[in-house]
Amino acid sequence: MEIDYSENNLYINYNDSDIKPYQKLQLKHYGFVEASTGSLFLNEDLENVLKKIINYFETENISFSLSSSCKGILEDIKKEERILNDLFETGKRIKNGDFDEQDFSQFKRFIKANIPRKLKDHQEKASYHFYRLGNSANFSVPGAGKTTVILTVFEKLKLEGKVNKIFVVGPAACFGPWREEFKEVLGRDPGYCILAGGDITERKSEYYRSNEISELYLTTFNTLSNDQEDVCNFLNSPGINALLVIDEAHYIKRISGEWANAVLNIGKYSQFRTILTGTPIPKSYSDLYNLFEFLWPEKPPITSEKKNKLSIYEQSNDFRSAKQILEKAIGPLFYRVNKSELNLKPQIFNPPISIQMNPKERKVYEAISKNILEYSSNDYLKNIEVVNSLRRSRMIRLRQCLSYTKLLSSAIQGYEEDLVNNSKLGKIIINYDEEELPAKLEKLILIVKEFQQRKEKVVIWAHFIGTIKLIEKHIKLNGINCKKIIGETPSEHSTISHEETREKIRNEFVRSDSGLDVLLANPAACAESISLHKTCYNAVYYDLSYNGAQYLQSLDRIHRVGGSEEQESFYHFLHYENTIEPDILSNLERKKLKMLNIIESDYNVCSLDMFEDNDDLELYETLYPDEN
Question: Which of 103, 310, 362, 389 is the most interior residue, by most CB within 10 Å?
Answer without folding.
Answer: 310
